[in-house]
């Protein structure tokens, strides 16, 4: 794999760390800035909204400059946002810092996916995309736990300063290692927007929303679920999240390995398996061993869909994939927000902390249905061509003359 993918993975590692580490530091941040924990939670919401809004806006900006330069601009925003967060004197400034950092998120992964795919042969695109996303998944195994530990022991401001430093490393890597590939000739904003007219692009994004909605319906409420239902101590939640992160790493690597060769079978397996695991988890959450296995599988099956879905968007965007790719990253965050809201509704309705798993199972099953629909629509032209083939045969073929060699070859084989 090209070294440029390492630079992209480092940037992804920093982005993944800053996105998720705040969840473990909300009590410290709230106490220091004089707000309640629920109010501090807007730092999570604000980031997610910034990703969804920033992905298309920053990608539109990128239509005027090279992809390498845009990746450097995005890493600059990431560094600035995390530095603002680290030195924020009041909550409002901290929130501004989070939003500034989030503006880089969607566009970095969207443009980075396009760049990663262009660095390798066509049959290795998904593997390259997977390599970049490995930085995000490893962040949940290494960056988030370490960042939480540092924040709890040395102060949360130190954590965000370290994350900003990671951004500097990522920026240097992009500047040094990523080639300055010129944008395709003639591709303008209207071409990028036109990609959304493709039903396959829209279906892939819908699968992203629903599939990741299934994952985060469970994971958003994993702390109360594990302590109140499974009987784990609060201190166990950190290593349970590491288990989830390990699942993410495994699933992402598996997805990258098989998406280039068996994309749709992989999606069927991952989405179907995710729906089944979440359904079983609804009833087995009271068991500690079952919970650990389920958390790992949710991470693995969920992130096994990332490379194939991102590749599917790139393949169907017809030469103008940047905006669609970035929008698909926003779709991940839309799925997170949707599932968190729906999970909160079923908990508020008195159905218990395990009920969000059932919500996740429903969302994953809906994504599987869309995958089947997408594949059938894709096969229609092939079937139509096959059905019309006999009518296009010449008279000799129609009389069976040209079939003889084929039949003889079949007999010999």
From TrEMBL:
The keyword Membrane applies. It is found in: Cell membrane. It is a multi-pass membrane protein. The keyword Transmembrane helix applies. Pfam families: MFS_1 (PF07690). Its main location: membrane. This is MFS transporter. It comes from Microtetraspora fusca.
């Amino acid at each position: 794999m090209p070294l440029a993918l390492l630079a992209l993975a480092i940037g992804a590692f920093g982005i993944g760390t800053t996105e998720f580490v705040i969840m473990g530091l909300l009590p410290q941040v709230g106490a220091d800035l004089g707000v309640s924990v629920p109010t501090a939670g807007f730092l999570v919401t604000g980031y997610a909204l910034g990703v969804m809004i920033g992905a298309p806006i920053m990608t539109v900006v990128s239509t005027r400059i090279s992809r390498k330069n845009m990746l450097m601009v995005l890493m600059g925003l990431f560094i600035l946002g995390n530095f603002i967060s680290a030195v924020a004197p009041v909550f409002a400034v901290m929130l501004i810092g989070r939003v500034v950092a989030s503006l880089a998120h969607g566009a970095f992964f969207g443009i980075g996916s396009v760049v990663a795919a262009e660095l390798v042969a066509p049959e290795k695109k998904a593997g390259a995309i997977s390599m970049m996303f490995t930085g995000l998944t490893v962040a949940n195994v290494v960056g988030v736990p370490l960042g939480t530990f540092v924040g709890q022991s040395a102060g949360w401001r130190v954590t965000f300063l370290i994350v900003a430093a990671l951004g500097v490393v990522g920026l240097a890597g992009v500047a040094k290692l990523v080639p300055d590939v010129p944008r395709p000739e003639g591709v303008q904003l209207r071409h990028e927007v036109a990609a959304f007219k493709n039903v396959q692009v829209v279906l892939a994004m819908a699968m992203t929303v629903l599939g990741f909605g299934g994952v985060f319906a469970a994971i958003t409420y994993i702390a109360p679920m594990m302590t109140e239902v499974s009987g784990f101590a609060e201190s166990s939640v950190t290593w349970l999240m590491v288990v989830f992160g390990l699942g993410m790493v495994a699933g992402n690597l598996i997805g990258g390995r098989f998406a280039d060769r068996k994309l749709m079978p992989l999606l069927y397996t991952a989405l179907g398996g995710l729906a089944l695991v979440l359904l079983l988890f609804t009833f087995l959450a009271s068991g500690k061993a079952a919970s650990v296995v389920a958390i790992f599988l949710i991470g693995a099956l969920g992130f096994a869909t990332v490379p194939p879905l991102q590749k599917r968007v790139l393949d169907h965007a017809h030469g103008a994939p940047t905006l669609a790719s970035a929008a698909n990253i926003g779709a991940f965050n839309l799925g997170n927000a949707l599932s968190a809201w729906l999970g909160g509704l079923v908990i508020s309705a008195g159905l218990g902390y395990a009920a969000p798993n059932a919500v996740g199972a429903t969302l994953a099953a809906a994504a599987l249905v869309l995958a089947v629909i997408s594949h059938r629509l894709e096969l229609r032209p092939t079937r139509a061509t096959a059905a019309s083939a006999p009518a296009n045969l010449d008279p000799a073929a129609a009389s069976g003359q040209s079939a003889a060699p084929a039949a003889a070859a079949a007999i010999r084989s």
